[in-house]
Amino acid sequence: MDGLVTFFNRLGLARVAAMGVIAVVMLGFFAFLIMRASTPPLAPLYSGLSFEDSAAIVSELQTQNVTYEIRGEGDTILVPRDQITTIRMSLAQDGLPTRGQVGYEIFDQQSTLGATSFVQNINNVRALEGELARTISSLARIKSARVHLVLPERALFSREQKDPTASIVLSVRGELSAGEIRAIQHLAASAIEGLTPSRVSVVDDTGRLLASGAGNGAEDMIAGETEERTLNLENRLRARLEDLLANVVGPGRARVQVNAELDLNRLSKTSETFDPNSQVVRSTQTRDLANSSTNGNSGQVSVSNELPGASTNTGSASGAAEDSTTTEETTNFEISKVTQTEMTEAGGIKRLSIAVVVDGTYVADASGTSTYTPRSQAEIDQIIALVKSASGYSEGRGDQVEVANLQFADRPELAAVGTAEAGLFDFTRDDLMNGAEMAVTLLIALALVFFVLRPLLKRVLAPEPKTLALPPSAELGAIPGAGGFGPDGSPSSLPSLNGEFEDEDGPSTPRDPAWMKNAKSMGETQANTLRTVGNLVEEHPKQAALIVRDWLASAA
């Protein structure tokens, strides 16, 4: 125990404190490394949660004894990466996260016994709103959605019925296209009986009106469809031309813009054509009539013969007979007729305008400097011919194609961009972050070992200087040329200026010149030794004080 105390006394209070601080820091650092290595990597379970969902999920994770971490303002929860799928399935079984919306599970949580029709109707509307909001939120460009429905009830003995309406508030990523807005309107309208897409209003989270829902849905729909059809045609032609030119001039070295004008008129045309030269006998009708007549009575009974007093003509007079024959023939002809009906749907291409900008070529000289060289007119003509052929150019429509050869502001890379499969050294963002964290931790550990711990251990374990490591019983007379100290600490013998030495018995007799020369050299050696001891005492005052203290203790 005394040796340990002596060891710490020799080290000094400052050195012992520094060693303690460094030991604590190193222990804490390595404890952090051990805990970091033993803790599984965390990944986001859900993000963008409301406080209600966060509280419910945290409570469920605590029940399952799952390690978790909350970040942000409580809207992001991290769990071990290898347990994400299992935890999500478990939370989905409990209906989490609800995202502040209630669906059809409201009927499972409440008892219908004693519930009035008004409460059931309200719950039905809430369930419809929640289910629609969940469905809309599942779209790729939608972060969250809120749906409000107005479903008017038809009053008794009323002939008029109000149409249902809906309003949707969206939190979007980027900007929605007209087609996506109409898709949301049709989605909501198809889920509610009697609701039409024109009665659905859509607003984004910035307060911008995306769809009015004012009832003029036919006009808005036609305008939206026209714009979407035009954009689709332009984008399709641009992608086709850029892909074609990339194989000729290189990837990224051609820019194409297409302006399409569509014919939005819908035309229906019916025409009938008669050919007089194409006559065909359809039917023939023939009629023969024969007529025979004779003049005179020829004994026939008449009214005059039957009158009273009339004379009876018993003569046998005979008249002349007449015969006639009539023949009629009717022929019906059919003239050939052609009936043609043509219908032209809206959306046909009325006119195309295509603008193409092509970069030139770059030639590197011996020093590595690239020089821009414009393309020849022959190449430009070939590019124009390719663009016309690929775009369906029609001179009758008045289509226009312009190709310009200009130097791009930023020179694109000449190497083709390919989509290679993930290889052995293709790391994800999480892998890079974990690797960087491990590298930084390793560098800090090495810095602490080599620049803090190693110098400290080297300084602590270094042997003390021999001049200061004298045992307590040692006397100063042991140093060559130095006089010893007596019991009271006074020097036993010191050289005098006149060549005589004084000892305990008094001054000694003078010596011969040879001894005087030796004494002078011994005095110089003693002075050098004392000077060396003084320098050591100045450099190490604490160690010198300990040595003197030991001498005093041993002398006492």
What does this structure look like?
With 556 residues, this protein is an alpha+beta fold. It has 13 helices and 17 strands. The strands form six sheets. Strands 4-5-6-7 form a four-stranded mixed sheet. A hairpin with a 4-residue loop joins β2 (69-71) and β3. It starts with a helix and ends with a helix. α2 runs antiparallel to α11, α8 (217-249) packs antiparallel against α10 and α12 crosses α13. The protein is elongated.
How would you summarize this macromolecular structure in one to three sentences?
The chain has 556 residues and is an alpha+beta fold. 40% of the residues lie in helices and 24% in strands.
Topology diagram in text:
Layout: H1 2-11, H2 13-38, E1 42-46, H3 51-63, E2 69-71, E3 76-80, H4 84-93, H5 106-109, H6 117-137, E4 142-150, E5 165-172, H7 178-191, E6 200-204, E7 209-211, H8 217-249, E8 254-263, E9 267-294, H9 303-306, E10 321-344, E11 348-358, E12 361-364, E13 370-373, H10 377-391, E14 400-405, H11 429-461, E15 494-495, E16 501-503, E17 506-507, H12 513-539, H13 541-555
Parallel strand pairs: 5-6, 11-14
Antiparallel strand pairs: 1-3, 2-3, 4-5, 6-7, 8-11, 9-10, 12-13, 15-16, 16-17
Helix pairs in contact: 2-11, 8-10, 12-13
